[in-house]
Amino acid sequence: NKVGCVRNIVQERYLIESKESASHVQLACSQHYCAFPLNGNELCIWNTSDSFNQPLHLIGHHQSITAVTFGNRVNPLLVCSASCDYVIVWNLVECGERVL
Length: 100
Fold this sequence. Notes:
This is WD repeat domain 27. This protein is mainly β.
């Protein structure tokens, strides 16, 4: 994790390794979160407002995730991921609580 400030631009960096190439990975961002496929069929959620928390890894797809988007409400904060086998709507508060 590395946070820096260049002029008036805040930069945050977090390194996550994946078994799949990242050249065509869908990326979705909301106010405080980024979501992207990891290792093809796993959804990774990074909370950009809390850089000390580990990313949330959501497992449920059997095929590679091809699309990711956030809902338009903050409460509940939902993210949708799609693959050839499933379309899954994840409630991030509930998913985070299950991990804890």
